[in-house]
Design a protein that fits this description.
The protein has 216 residues and is an all-alpha fold. The protein is 81% helix and 0% strand. The longest helix is centred in the N-terminal third of the chain and has 39 residues.
């Protein structure tokens, strides 16, 4: 087996296209998972069990079914119900929804880690419940869970190749397309592997830097 640098050069335009799609899916999926995970966590603390029970059922179902199955369902079943989305939008929603059930648990742990004295102080100051959450509880809870949320970003990055099954041409999708067209698999797949290593490493460095800032 010989390494063909010309194949790498030919693949690079498709690689950059795939990288852009991967980063878009990662960024938007992360935003959905962070926002929706916080909503789930807050709803699970609702006084009414008629709120907690449906949320618990939904999140357990999503967390305990494969992401791949969920992507297929969103992409192929929803159009039969009149809901048609682009492949990328479907992938972003699928990743965001799936990982929101994990970030929910992270937020829950962060909220429960806030000292009881903070709740008592807010009560003593006669702060409204919404205000207590906004200025006392959530700032402390989120600060505690940033490292764990960052780990899920890296996990989402490594799951973006699954979007290839619903026709999203992210990095691996572009590599597969190039390999099938040119009958050269080693070079594009190696480039993609290195790209994922570099992206994951950069993300971990950013996470450590953010963690150090929050600890100060």
């Amino acid at each position: 087996m010989t390494w063909d640098w010309s194949a790498v050069s030919d693949f690079m335009p498709q690689f950059w296209d795939g990288l852009l799609v991967t980063l878009q899916a990662l960024a938007l999926g992360s935003l959905i998972s962070f926002a929706l995970g916080l909503v789930w966590a807050l709803l699970m603390r609702a006084p009414s069990r008629f709120v907690r029970w449906p949320v618990g059922v939904v999140t357990e179902f999503v967390r305990n079914t494969p992401l791949l199955v969920q992507l297929f369902f969103l992409f192929y079943v929803l159009p039969e119900w009149g809901v048609t989305l682009s492949a990328l939008a479907t992938g972003v929603i699928g990743i965001g929804l799936h990982y929101s059930t994990y970030t929910m648990q992270v937020y829950r742990a962060g909220i429960e880690a806030v000292p009881t004295g903070q709740w008592e102080a807010a009560t003593a100051l006669n702060l409204p419940r919404v205000r207590t959450w906004q200025v006392v509880i959530l700032p402390q809870a989120i600060r505690r869970v940033v490292p764990a949320l960052g780990n899920y970003v890296i996990s989402m990055l490594k799951d973006t190749p699954m979007l290839m099954v619903i026709t999203v041409l992210e990095m691996l999708g572009e590599a597969r397309l190039f390999a099938q067209e040119h009958f050269q698999f080693t070079e594009p797949l190696t480039v993609i592997g290195v790209a994922f290593i570099v992206l994951s490493y950069l993300a971990s460095l950013l996470l450590r830097s953010l963690e150090r800032r929050l600890v100060r």
